[in-house]
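Reply to dn_fold:

You asked what the input looked like. This is it:
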Amino acid sequence: MASRDSTGSEEAGFQAPGGLNPLDLGRLTVLDRGQKWCGVAVETAFGKDVVRRLGEIAENLGIVIRFIQVSMVRAQEPFARAVAFLDFSNSIVTPEEALELVSKQEFVKKARIIYPSGTGVLSDDYFFPLVLDKERIVVFRRRTYESLFKGIRERFGTAGEVMLYYVGFNIGYQTYSDYASIVGSEKPEAIVELAKTFLRTMGWGIVDVVEMDLEKGMAQVRVYEGFECEIGRGSEAAYGHFSRGLVAGFFTRLFDREAKVVETMCIAKGDPYCEFTIGFL
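and this is what came back:
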């Protein structure tokens, strides 16, 4: 029986839609009885031979690298941070002996073993917090954000949907300025491209700006696999109130005039994608 991972995919029965390639963020796994895994957190000098040399050490010791994640390294940073889950089932050394050998390498600044908990959970308890582009981020599993979005709807009804819209609006409005700051330009096309990249990277959805006319102040946006509307499948009406607000806030800032957004298609009611038409109030 395979170990369950941090996505809960085994329990939830997750199947990748056609054309999509899910990426498991890892850093947490539940071990089955008999699995001899440990983790290791490493801070090491960054160079072209570092990964190869660490891989050679593992291979020579009979250690199988089951998972490895390296933090983004910027040009001015001398050290890289990485966490790995290692399988010692057929190793000729103990985790402690392996750590001692790794720590002696001249390129390793710091290394620490991560042991599984008494309940068989192996997780990265060394690196914290998570960041993206130097800004802290948090990750919600589907059960969490589904409870959040559905809970607001169930408790407050249409008022909850309005609340979700305005929360999305404020986020969209603010992130436009954030993206402009990152790209170092007020050029709308560049900001839109960065927004599309961030939304996909963060798992919110795959965005396609089908049409955008700056002079007329109109646009048409399609979102594939949007996280909000995915949880509303079976709905008879468009479900993306938060997403609609997000689009409205973003394009209000882009057009410098309050935008009106209508969700004309929605995966919640069986359409192949969510489509938002943007105009003016």
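The helical segments are 9-12, 50-60, 95-103, 142-156, 158-183, 188-201, 227-230, 241-255.
Hope that clears it up.
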